[in-house]
Amino acid sequence: MSVEFIGIIHTQNVSEIHPPAGPVIDVDYVETIARAHDEGGFDRALVAFHSTGPESQLVVAHAASVTKNLKFMIAHRPGFTQPTLAARQLATLDHFTGGRVAVHIITGGSDEELAKDGDHLTKDERYARTSEYLDIVRAEWTSEKPFDYKGQYYQVDQGFGAVKPLRTPQIPVYFGGSSDAAIPVAGKHADIFALWGETQAQVAETIARVRQAAAKHGRQVKFSLSLRPIIADTEEAAWARADEIVAKAKALREAAGLPTSGHRPPNAGSQRLLDAAAQGSRLDKRLWTGVAAVTGAAGNSTGLVGTPQQVAEALLDYYDLGVTTFLIRGFDPVEDAVAYGRDLIPLVRKLVAEREAQAVAAAS
């Protein structure tokens, strides 16, 4: 199995240790971080979605214009654009980027955030709507003749997409969501299922659940894992930086009047990370939960800490569980992207290639 690396492009320099500053859309920053990922050998970069943030497809359109090889993972929330239109928008962008588009379906776990966009469905209802949404998106991408669709949330009469994705048969669909309502939808629709950086035991459990759900539809799913690697020349220096990051994140949250312990977001992904954090700040070989504990696991917030060699070996432990995509981003976004491209990504690719060669030799 080959390995894929995904980074992240925000529209301004921001992280748990960098409060947002300057314009919400800093064009120079977008171009700088996009080029850092392109030159660093990342396969893709995620552009996130939030009910108060810039529109992800438009950000990708600009980032694609200043990069050559970097592909993109567009976070997209079903329900706010008609699925027929969304399918044509994504297919159109796929052509203008030379086939560099993938979509990351995020149904949304926070009722409060979704209400900002006027969405008041329950979580279970949202995932049911997502399933219908993706039925229609795929039909737009693949159907060679007009189609009808009759669902609870969508009814389409003679829908048809004259523009198809540049790649056949369709744009890759990444999917996030760990709740009981999410897993069946992932089994039906996900090409790549995205997990946050959980313990090896948690990851193995989720992979088994998704594979079982996919098998009901005769499908196979790949898996992605999101982590925040902290690398340094020595293990001691890496852990010292991890401690500094926790201290900075805590200080920034306290200054902003935000809690630094005891808060538990409603989405299942954050709850699973907090369950891991409750076991300790250092788990498995070098899984680190320090920032997750401070922020209430608000997003991808666990990391792997050590030298590039140590972190690469820890990534391969997840690779052995079935993870073939790693979404890695740092707390100093541009600087860490450069370091990953220089010191971590080539090493992981080398180790994976060696492992594959050994497997071929053993089988012959």
UniProtKB/TrEMBL annotation:
Organism: Caulobacter zeae
Superkingdom of the source species: Bacteria
Alphabetized InterPro entries for the sequence: Luciferase-like_dom (IPR011251), Luciferase-like_sf (IPR036661), SsuD_RutA_monooxygenase (IPR050172)
CDD domains from the UniProt entry: Alkanesulfonate_monoxygenase
Listed Gene3D superfamilies: Luciferase-like domain
Keyword Iron found: no
Residues in Luciferase-like domain copies: 9-324
Keyword Hydrolase carried by entry: no
GO-annotated molecular function: alkanesulfonate monooxygenase activity
Single Gene Ontology BP annotation: alkanesulfonate catabolic process
Keyword annotations of the record: Flavoprotein, FMN, Monooxygenase, Oxidoreductase
SUPFAM superfamilies: Bacterial luciferase-like
Protein name: Alkanesulfonate monooxygenase
